[in-house]
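Per-residue structure
===
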Amino acid sequence: MRIKKSVLKFWAALVAKVLPTTQFSLPIHKAIVLKANESGGVTVYANSEYNALMLVNIPAQDVFPEVAVSADGLVHACVGESDELHLDFSDDHTILNVVSKKTRFSLEVADMSTFEHPALDPELAFVDCGSVKKDKFISLLKSAGPFLSKDISRPYVMGVLLVGKYMYATTITSIMRTESGYNFAEGINFIPQGVLEVLGSGGKDDADVHIAVSETWVRFTAGEVTFFTKRHGTEGEFDYPALDSELLSIGTHTGSAKINLESLRKALASTEYFAKEFVRVILDRKGSRLEAFHNKRVIAKAPFTGTYQHATALEIVFEIAQIKSMLSIDAKEITMRVQGSLESVGFSVDNVNYLMLPAVLDDT
């Protein structure tokens, strides 16, 4: 096979982002597939262990039927002086040689039978369901970034869920919910974290993300990129607190506090060094502040601009990561809805709902 090095490296690196990066992942979920397509080029795709699939079609010549190799290995093999790569097999078809003039890499070939993906079944019938403007869709997905789980023990929530007309993201203690611009009538649709950048890489920013569904799959197409995600019928398949409607009933909060985010950012910069993992937010009509503490001793404190009119001050302990997620929001000021030191805190910005669960410590 002959293919442009720069093209293969760019798309292989992006498509590989759908693959999990945890140490628990199986070898078959760390590989990338090159497969001949009907247009005479090659389809590059990665098969995630989360029942997701990302693919892109790119031009190539003298294409062989198919091969699966290490994703990292293929990307790192795209080097050399020439922009044209030659790919060929060893005599026993166990090695794929990637050659650019005098540069040669030999990659071990994986068993293709393990990469047969049900979403690529030609008998599968997809029904077009319309489209969403790509710039809006990608902006929504990227805004979820700070609220995505980093818990590698639950990699199936290291992404966003599309449920009904909403998109959810969570970090166990923080939740984000917003309208996605499309209504998925049934099931839960999971998009892994690495897919967000890839979906935004194909076509122009003002292009559409086209959506089609089958009985078991949802297909997103944005320019050159196509992404399949499995439809999950029950919430129990995901240990996902954001789907608890009671947690998102932030309209029931009885108190409120206006907080200037730039002022809060400066307060965190002053106290973060002294705080190991948690900080205490003090909401007080006489002056709000952020505190770093150990046991019951305050180590550092810094004021921030906020308006809280209730007679009794309110103390809430948050993880530092939660405060940083809050500061990532594109807003100058937020209005927190509060109801107690150990109760959930909610706020909304541009029709996006956020909810944070305070930390519960044995000795604060």
